[in-house]
Amino acid sequence: xxxxxxxxxxxxxxxxxxxxxxxxxxxxxxVSVHDGGALVLTGSNGSGKTTFxxxxxxxxxxxxxxxxxxxxxxxxxxxxxxxxxxxxxxSLKDAVKEKFTVLDNVQWFEVLEDKARMLSMGQRKRLxxxxxxxxxxxxxxxxxxxxxxxxxxxxxxxxxxxxPRFPRxxxxxxxxxxxxxx
Length: 182
Ligand SMILES: Nc1ncnc2c1ncn2[C@@H]1O[C@H](COP(=O)(O)OP(=O)(O)OP(=O)(O)O)[C@@H](O)[C@H]1O
Fold this sequence. Notes:
CATH class of the largest domain: Alpha Beta
Radius of gyration: 19 Å
Domain ABC transporter: 11-181
CATH architecture of the largest domain: 3-Layer(aba) Sandwich
Helix content: 10-25%
Protein name: ABC transporter I family member 1
Bound molecules: adenosine-5'-triphosphate
Structural class: alpha/beta
Distance between the termini: 53 Å
Strand order of the largest sheet: 2-1-4-5
CATH superfamily of the largest domain: P-loop containing nucleotide triphosphate hydrolases
CATH topology of the largest domain: Rossmann fold
Strand content: 25-35%
Number of strands: 8
Largest sheet: 4 strands, antiparallel
Keywords: ATP-binding, Cytochrome c-type biogenesis, Membrane, Nucleotide-binding, Translocase, Transport
InterPro entries: AAA+_ATPase, ABC_transporter-like_ATP-bd, ABC_transptr_haem_export_CcmA, P-loop_NTPase
GO molecular function: ATP binding; ATP hydrolysis activity; transmembrane transporter activity
Shape: globular
């Protein structure tokens, strides 16, 4: 009996490192996400969570390693063009059009007819989350999705704990490098 090949992960980070301002923020990250899966990034302030998301969104490129979507490197221009059409981005800058109704903002769900400027912080976040569902883009990159929300469960999540950052002159990476030399 022929064994079935396991499905390719939808997203695969293969030994990915990332520099910002000549500082190494992420180093040798290996992680995969399959359809229906979630990757939850936790870590202290400045540890690189947003940097990680920005790289997945294609705003910056890995300094080493590859990000593969369906097995293709997203930094290749032909691939990136298709990949970016899959992305749904949610960040603290909520991009809610305040003069439009909530319904206009979501564009699909039958919800409040209030102007969006009347919403509380948590309601704005819920509007953003509803918009994720309304737009047919399967890869969701969510920066601080639970800020301002009341209690929320996250299921089927793989936790990736990023190392804490150290003051600029001494990062964890610097310390590891020093340990290598010693
Ligand atoms: N535009 C930038 N240019 C250069 N370095 C940056 C830039 N933005 C952030 N950094 C640095 O990159 C590192 C990681 O920042 P990042 O925003 O990814 O952290 P984070 O884990 O999302 O933090 P927080 O929990 O505070 O939101 C920090 O040391 C930060 O100073």
